[in-house]
Design brief:
230 residues; alpha/beta; Rossmann fold; eight-stranded mixed sheet; globular
Length: 230
Amino acid sequence: MKKSTAWIELPPINQKHAPSRLLVFLPGDQSSAESFAPVAIAWQLKFPSALCMILQPPLGDGLWWEKHRSRRDAAASCARLVAQQVQDQQRLLGLLASQTALIGFAQGATVALELIRRSTRGQAHQDEASVLPLCSIVVAYAAQLARPLLAHEHVDCSVHLIHGDLDHRVPAIYGQQAYRSLKAAGADVTWDLLADATHTIGQDGVIVGTMRALHSIFRGRSKGRATTLH
């Protein structure tokens, strides 16, 4: 387990080859990069050839922004910084957006959803992070959108929303609203409501999340994408 000032890095379980996939974890709500490591390891068991990058929320208590700040502005600001980190890691590993998945929880899930918004309006001032796809899959636990999707915005990856029906910190209605907004924008999106699950990622959450991600990968292969190791 290699730790830097910004993230914890878990090398692939299968180290016979170079990493074939990048799993980026965005913790949130009282979880740090270190405390989120068991979730990443559980995911990595299904993706043994993947390198895991567990980002450290910049504030204490697993917060990406102070609760009194506007979620709309704060999530966008965090997303720009995360996008640069992920793109740097992709270049270092020689991996593409099609080989990258984002897994977020609470505020981290909101940042993940912010990262995949794309505008159909051509703007000369847009930077690489806001134009190029960052990933092919997002799994968002206890997520809510920072702001509604606009008419000119779209999402070009698979999104899997997972919520506990007993989550009182981020009630499931927010996940349902995100699902409807993403669906209306034409996104490839699913929403799973886990019975008797609270504001945490337990075994059921890992099972559903990895199942959804693998389904998206295999479905992509059936459309003619190049085969890669997991």
